[in-house]
Amino acid sequence: MSRRFCLILLGVQISLLSSSAFAAEEGRLEKMVDRITPSIVQVGVATGTMEVSTVGSGVVVSANGYILTAKHNITGAAHVFVKTSTGTVCPALFYVADAHRDIALIKAQCKRLTPIAVSKREPLRGEEILALGFPASNMIQGTRDEASVSKGIVSGVNRAIREPRKLEDGEYGDDSNIQPKGWFLREGSSDGSSSLYVESLIQIDAMVNPGSSGGALVNTNGELLGIILSQITNTGSNVGMNFAISVKEAALLLAFSGASSGGNR
How many angstroms separate the CA atoms of 211 and 72, rounded? Predict the structure, then answer.
């Protein structure tokens, strides 16, 4: 057998092994996503007419009905509802919020909810992550009760976002921290006109869009790392500058719910 033929054969074997390893990893991730999908719910609000509109996503953190979401999803809502991956809709009758971190805890009156496991460690820059939520949930057809999934990496940790108060004609107040002209913060279904200052954020490049806010940022083991909050854009579309609040910032809310880092009760 010639040396050249041996080298070709070795290359084929390495290629086959690599393909097999890739397929195995993709299969593992698919099973993990299937496992945690029931923990991701849609969050809706209703006006006085009781017409429910989906505004964002939420993450089940305890079997007794507690769900983490973005505070801006439910601010000012007369009534809050959640819709599970089975299509069940139920009211959320109680919530407590942390305005400084833009996160809230709601308690849904659903039975047999599936809580997500909470990571014990901080995310690492460059770490692979998945983002799960319901972008454009009122428009996307198909299996709309199951969260969309996007994949990316942690671009940065301990980020802070400051969105100055907008004045008229596109001008900003508080010129101590002006963003580049044309860039704005987009929170869920917001038009970017509200003010927000949040620290301890995880920057990711995984695709998120309005409706994703309140969804889950997880590691490749399916453990919750953070709650998706916002994106920064200069076009109104996604440019890969997306943010989640670290789950460590929700420690008090998790304790209140009966969930804790590394697992749930």
Answer: 11
